[in-house]
């Protein structure tokens, strides 16, 4: 009977992906050594290569994203408030206009 899905830690994934990026062994050799599918190693390698720039960033990108998300949240809150106010006004006017 087959085993359930294995969950690999981020540290393990980084270790395997770094070794794959080094290129000292083929992906097939790494897959055999770590008992992981070669396609999975390729995916981890790609994710590491794409995300590596974030390691060396100075935090400006993260700060600008946080500022943008705060502004977006404030805008959403203001719009919900306006929607609520318009509903109250509409209900009032419907009541006043009668049947």
Please describe the biggest sheet, giving its number of strands, its sense, and whether it closes into a barrel.
none
* Average predicted confidence as pLDDT: 88
The coarse silhouette is elongated
Distance between the termini: 72 Å
Radius of gyration: 27 Å
Query: pLDDT under 50 segments (min length 5)?
Result: none
- Beta-strand percentage range: under 5%
User: Count of DSSP E strands?
Assistant: 0
Helix content: over 70%
Class inferred from helices and paired strands: mainly alpha
N-to-C SSE series?
A: HHHH
Q: Count of helices?
A: 4
Overview of the structural elements:
With 99 residues, the chain is an all-alpha fold. It has four helices and no strands. It has helices spanning 10-22, 27-34, 38-55, 60-97. It is elongated, with a radius of gyration of 27 Å.
Features:
99 residues; 4 helices; elongated
Topology:
Elements: H1 10-22, H2 27-34, H3 38-55, H4 60-97
Helix pairs in contact: 1-3
Summarize the structure.
This protein is mostly helical and 99 residues long.
